[in-house]
Design goal:
Blueprint lengths: L1 E6 L3 E8 L2 E9 L8 H9 L2 H6 L5 E6 L5 H14 L4 E6 H10 L4 E6 L3 E6 L12 H4 L5 H13 L5 H10 L4 H9 L4 H6 L2 H6 L4 H25 L5 E4 L1 H5 L1 H10 L4 E5 L3 H11 L1
Parallel strand pairs: 1-4, 4-5, 6-8, 8-9
Antiparallel strand pairs: 1-2, 2-3, 6-7
Helix pairs in contact: 1-3, 4-14, 6-11, 11-13
């Protein structure tokens, strides 16, 4: 039996399969080695009945996640998985690699992520190139759900949010300055809080204020992430994964077109194509 996992900071998607067929699939809390220690991750695994029931049957685990980029953080995740899945060979890699495999397979190309966070890279068919883009939710993540959440909260606190939108926001969320600052600066895993406004943004995406905000995020994303890549690898379309890319695909294509950049495949959740990829390999 194999397990394929794709995790952002908010959710992790799991698929367990055997002999070419899905045994079970489920979603649980996201796992990020930047935000969670080994003990927390192990406790999380031990709370899931699906994992408990199938742990000893799993022989290979392919884990892809936000934050799993450096050898140290990969080893951190791998060590916990090996403790829980005692018979399994474990492969841990970054979410950028998942984006590449799910859109390109073993082909060369450019890939981008616009989901809870944001990133981009060139994929040579085996590995992604190193880049300076993935600086985390504080310094980076332009255009992502995290960035959009930050901009939304900033406009609320600075009172630059239009009154009709502010009324909807106040009705929906029991928040004030003290609560917001505490959740962002003092609470564990602030990215969960920042990305939790994604539904509100989608519900109000036709509002001119929201639309301008998302367009601004996409322009920053293209200028920061894509222009350096397309100069180095010209005439290549960029393939995307992520909820923001899929949810606002038409706007993303419009912004990219303004910079002369072509968008290829856009998929919301890499887990489905990742599973297909590894079922064909096993």
């Amino acid at each position: 039996m194999i397990a394929v996992v794709f995790t952002g900071s908010r959710f992790s998607d799991w698929r367990l399969a055997e002999k070419g067929k899905i045994v079970t699939g489920f979603r649980m809390m996201g796992i990020n080695p930047y935000l969670h220690d080994e003990r927390f991750i192990l406790q999380l695994l031990n709370k899931n009945n699906n994992l408990i029931n199938y742990a000893e049957q799993i022989r290979r685990i392919y884990f892809f996640g936000a934050g799993s980029s450096s050898p140290e953080r990969k080893d951190k995740i791998a060590m916990v998985l090996k403790q829980f899945f005692i018979h399994a060979k474990v492969v841990v890699d970054h979410d950028v690699k998942a984006s590449a495999l799910s859109t390109l397979g073993d082909e060369k190309g450019l890939i981008g992520i616009l989901g809870s966070g944001s990133n981009a890279a060139y994929f040579n068919g085996k590995r992604t190139t190193d880049n300076n883009f993935g600086l985390g939710y504080i310094l980076s993540d332009e255009g992502s759900a995290n960035w959009i959440g930050r901009m939304l909260l900033k406009s609320f606190l600075n009172e630059t949010m239009p009154s009709e939108l502010r009324e909807k926001f106040v009705e929906r969320y029991p928040l004030d300055r003290k609560i917001i600052l505490d959740k962002v600066y003092n609470q564990v895993n602030p990215t969960l809080f920042l990305t939790s406004f994604a539904d509100f943004v989608m519900e109000n995406h036709k509002h001119r204020f929201i639309k301008r905000m998302i367009y601004r995020g996409f322009k920053l994303y293209v200028e920061t992430y894509l222009l350096p890549l397309t100069k180095q690898y010209p005439n290549m379309a960029v393939n995307f994964t992520g909820s923001v890319a899929a949810g606002y695909e038409e706007w993303l294509r419009d912004v990219a077109d303004g910079y002369g950049i072509s968008i290829g495949t856009v998929i919301r959740e890499p887990i489905h194509n990742l599973l297909k990829y590894y079922l064909n390999k096993n």
